[in-house]
Task: structure prediction
Amino acid sequence: MKRTLTNRFALITAVVLLCVTAHAQTPPATWQEHWFEHNQVLNRVYYDNDLAVYYDNNVSSSVTWPFQYMGDVWRYTKSVYGNYGTENRLYAIFHTGRYSGGHPSTYFDAGHDNRNVTDCGPGPWTSGAGNDLDLTTHEVAHIVEGASKGIHGSPHRPLWGDSKWAEIFNYDVYVGLGRTGDVTRWYNLMINNSDNFPRNNTFWFRDWFYPIYANHGGTALLNNYFVLLAQHFPKNGNNYARDMNWGEFVHFWSGAANANLKAQATLAFGWPAEWEAQFIQAQYQFPFPYSNTVNNGNDITNLGGSVSAQYSDSPAAESVGNLIDNSHTTKYLTFHNAAWVQYQATTNYVVDRYSITSANDAVERDPLSWTLQGSTNGTTWTNLDTRSGEDFPYRYQKRVFTFTNSTAYRYYRLTFTNNSGSLLQLAELEFFEKGTATAATAKPAVTSAIYPNPSTDKVVINFDGKQATLTITDEQGHKVVPTKAVGSGEAINLSHLKEGVYLIHLEVDGVTKTERLLKK
Result:
């Protein structure tokens, strides 16, 4: 999936890269701040073709880690999301003993002399670790959200606020730079971090960004989102014209993932009726496709049964039972690089899909090659699926593997034949009972007509079938006529609506068709 997603957007990203040429120029030796309450004279302490670092007079000259780290972050950012302006350089400003937190600016903004800026205080910046890295990387995240693909603005900002995008951006940067210690540290900081928006006890990282990142393309997913946004979302010149609503937010991320993410959004945020109308409208207004393969089968490891392993050499806290505890923060470890693990169900199940989740550290311990077998008695085994050279590039990454099977087995065994190290570990194991698949983007098969259109006070709706469910929204997805059951030929009163464009959503036998209506 990662390779497919990358190829799908490669051409557009390449065009963006080619359209902006970086010009090496010497940053000024001093820079007078003239924004907000900032009025310091800054001194340039380092620069190269990608980065210029400025300190105020209170920053210790012993602080040198930004020279390499901020350059690495910026180079990685450009390699993923493309260029940012003609100069294409990051200006990293550091203060000590003044100002709190930090703020960004981009090459679109004259207030910071049309430079890509991270302006951070209060320091002292002497550790070059932990929060020093987190805060400075966070500000780069804001440059990405507000100036990617040559378009200015952040239509998603009212939804995810100041820091939610930065949570997954920071994680990806640490992954991309190979900073495994920071990957684990940041994950552990974010996984239990909750917010009160869009509802109480929302876990943005745990329930939204990390799952879609881990399961739908990783770094490519993040870039794809901004590609789609630049392609499709309304703009005035080089500026986004308006903010997003929640239905649009989920639709654009679904496009980036090439998978319908409504179920994940429902888990993470809830799914009010208003969002459903917005989501339908977004699919109609921005008709890029995405698949939605849904397996309705159960994870049979949640239905009783037991798990066992070939070897009993695991540390006490890393036993084989952790594989089915539904927590990717625990793991199973054996001091062998080849071993089998086996799940025994309470009865026979037809399984055609399974998942493996990588553990918290040590990439060399990840499974690499294996064979899945099934058995009805635990003695005679049938090969069901064989994999070789598989890769888990991210920690806590859940990968799903499908295969063809129509036979019910009680025992399912994974025999891992090798990896690149001397130990073997994995966090979670799931086996899914055979289910059904549907397509999210199948074109509606509803035959209908609305008239008169344009309309003044009422509209008549004809359709094939005896009854349908009708919803009418404005162009922002707000419901203006309550959802109701209607019959073919029924007249709908519109006299209370203002003049404008509305969307009529007609659902017949589970299939929805959306049509535009002009109210005069």
Notes: The radius of gyration is 27 Å. Residues 1-8, 10-23, 292-296, 436-445 have pLDDT under 50 and may be disordered.
